[in-house]
Amino acid sequence: MNSNLVLEVDRLSGQQIGLCYHCHKCTAGCPVVDAMQYGPDLLLRMVALGRDDAIFKSRDIWLCVGCYTCATRCPNGINIAATMDGLRQISLARGYAAGERDALLFHRLFMGVVKRFGRSHEAFMLGLFKILSKVPLMNDIPAGIGLFVRGKVPLLPARITASAQVRQIFQRSKK
Amino acid sequence: MNYSYYPGCSLHSTGLEYGLSTRAVFKHLGLGLTELDGWNCCGASSAHVFDHNLALALPAQTLSLAQAFDRDLVIPCAACYNRLKGADMAMRNDAATRSQLESMLGFQYTGSVAVRPVLAVLAEDVGVKRIAEETRHPLNGLKVVTYYGCLLVRPPEIAQFDDPDNPQVMAELLRAVGAEVMPWSHATDCCGGSLSLSRSDVVQNLVGKLAERAREAGADTIATACPLCQVNLEMRQTAEPKVPAFYFTELLGLAFGLSDSEKWFSKHLIDPRPVLERVAV
User: Are residues B75 and B187 in the same domain?
Assistant: First the structure.
C-alpha cells in the first residue's frame, strides 16, 4: 500500500521509502529521538499509511538535525534525513504550522541572512532570533556576551562580491 | 604545496580560532592557503530544509570559483566540507543535476577540484612522520578524546573520509605530537547541531553526555574538527568541572611551538589553559 505522500516524499528526497522493512536501526541511533513523539522509523511507516495530518502536526520532522546517523546505518540505503527534508517541504507547502516553531524560525532567519549578505552573520541572526522566538529573552545572553567580548560576533556583515550571485541562486532555485 | 581555502562563515565568527590555528599550522608546514575570493555560505544545516536545488546550488557556486585554480580546495568546517563535497559528488555522478546547476549558475563543471578536509590534507599530504618531526613541545601527559561530530564522516558515500563509526585520522595526528588519545565510543555522536538555539535543552543533554563520557574515558579535553560542535560543547555544558574543547589544529600549533597559540586559547568560552598548565605542556 502506498499513499500519495510516499510518492511526494520519494520525489522530493530522491529516496525510496518503500524499501524500508522497519528494522528500527534509524530510531535506535537517532540522537534526538528522546524529544520526538514517533521517531524516524515510525514516521516512515506513517508516510506509507498516509497519516499525513499526524506527521505534519508532530514536532518530529522539525527536530531532525541532519546528522545522517540513520542514513549511514539504514541497511536499505534510505537517506532518512533527506526524507525528513522532503516532509518539511511538504508540510510548509500545505501550510502547516511547524511542530517546533523556533527550529523553523532559526532556519528561516539563517537563510534570510544568507540571501541578503551571501554569508551567515551571527550577530544579525541571533538578534532577530532573540526577538522573534519564544525562547526566553534572557537565555543565552551571557553566552552571547561571552562570544562578543572574544571578538567572535562581528557586528557588521562582511560585504562579499558573491552576494549578487547568491540572490540570483535564491531566485532561480524556486521552481 | 598550495591549496585553495574555503573558511566558511563560522571561521570568521564563532570558530575564529579554528581559522587562525589552521592558517598558522599550514604556514608553519610551508603549505600555501589562498582564500577563494567571493565565496558564499554553503547553506549549512538550513538550505536543505527548504529546497534541495538551493542546497546544491549554494556550494556549487563556490566550487565554480575554485575551478579557476589548479589546486585542491581545503575546508576546515565539517558542515562546509560536507555541503561542498556533496555538491561536487552530485555534479560528478549525475548528469541531470550537473546540467541543471550549470545552467542555473552559468558555469561548466570540470570536476578538476578535489574537495578535502584539513584533517585529510595534514594526514595524507604532510603525513604523521613530518608532523612528529615538527613537534617542539610534545603534548606529553595531555589526555584527549577525538570528536569528529557528524558531517566530516557521514553519510560515508558523500564524506568519503575516515571511518564513520571508528575514525582514526585525528588520533594519529595527535599521537604524532605526543598527546595520549583515550579510546571512547562517541567520536561521531551528534552534538545537536543547529538545535542549539531553539532547543538548547536537547543540545545540553547531548553535550552533557559527551562531556561525561570524555571524563569517564579519562580525557582532559575533547579535540574537535567542527566549529558548531566546538561552540556547542563549550556553550552547552552545564555540569562542573567543564571539559574544554580544542580544535585539533590548535593542539598541533601548540605542539609546533607556534607563538600565536595563546591568542587562540583566549577566545574559548571554557578557558583551556588550566588543563594545559596542569599537565605542563
Answer: no
Tell if the CB–CB gap between B12 and A158 is shorter than 8 Å.
yes
Q: Are A72 and B154 in contact (CB under 8 A)?
A: yes
Cβ-Cβ contacts under 8 Å, B43 against chain A = 114
- Residue B38, pLDDT score: 93
For the complex shown, is ipTM > 0.90?
A: yes
Q: Inspect the interface and report whether the beta carbons of B41 and A12 lie closer than 8 Å.
A: no
Residues B67/B113, Cβ–Cβ less than 8 Å:
yes
Q: Could you tell me if A41 and A105 lie in one domain? A: no
Query: Can you give the pLDDT at residue B7?
Result: 97
Residue in chain B nearest A133 by alpha carbon:
B198
What are the Cα distances from residue B85, in Å, to A136, B73, B250? 37, 10, 24
| Contact assignment for A63 to B40 by CB distance below 8 Å | no
Q: Residue B86: its pLDDT value, please?
A: 98
Q: Which residues of chain B have pLDDT under 70?
A: 281
| pLDDT tens string B161-177 | 999 999 999 999 999 99
Indicate whether B188 and B138 sit together in one domain. Answer: yes
The CATH number that applies at residue A19 is: 1.10.1060.10
Give the single-character DSSP code of B114: P
For B55, the grid coordinates are 542546497
Q: Are residues B62 and B197 in the same domain?
A: no
- Which among B60, B87, B118 is the end of a domain? B118
Test mutation, A11, A65, A137, A138, chain B, max B CBs within 10 A? A65
